[in-house]
């Protein structure tokens, strides 16, 4: 069963709009009921910080990682990346998910932000530029990043 369901365009859940493309709206449904509508299903992996409430901004990173590389990516995320990013000023918390339907990208990280430019701060940029990050980055077969704002 999915811990998160994302639908584009319409549906239940929180609505987050891409800052660069106003037509791109995600319906973000955590702990979806069994009878939830179709969407992209994800299983919870880990979280850090306050992820119990909606945030004004959601920064999502989608990664496509080969199955053989997942243990190395999980170690990096758990031991370094997630703690460093969620410790940055303006980052409320972060959650990691694995896609359940076999589609790509197969991993999703969602960071809750107080303001949209948190990922441009010196602290955030430093957290993305560690030696360990540079070692695992070649494992990213594809990546997509979006900053979204919560719609009322």
UniProtKB/TrEMBL annotation:
- How is this protein named in the record? Uncharacterized protein
């Amino acid at each position: 069963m999915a811990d998160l369901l994302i639908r584009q365009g319409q549906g239940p859940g929180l609505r987050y709009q891409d800052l660069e493309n106003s037509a791109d709206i995600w319906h973000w449904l955590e702990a979806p009921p069994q009878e939830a509508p179709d969407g992209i299903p994800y299983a919870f992996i880990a979280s850090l910080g306050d992820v119990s409430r909606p945030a004004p901004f959601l920064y999502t990173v989608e990664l496509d990682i080969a199955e053989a590389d997942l243990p190395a990516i999980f170690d990096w995320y758990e031991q370094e990346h997630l703690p460093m990013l969620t410790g940055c000023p303006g980052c409320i918390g972060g959650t990691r998910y694995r896609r359940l339907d076999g589609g790509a990208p197969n991993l999703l990280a969602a960071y809750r932000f107080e303001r949209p430019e948190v990922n441009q701060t010196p602290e955030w940029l430093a957290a993305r530029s560690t030696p360990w990050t540079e070692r695992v980055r070649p494992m990213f077969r594809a990546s997509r990043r979006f900053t979204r704002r919560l719609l009322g």
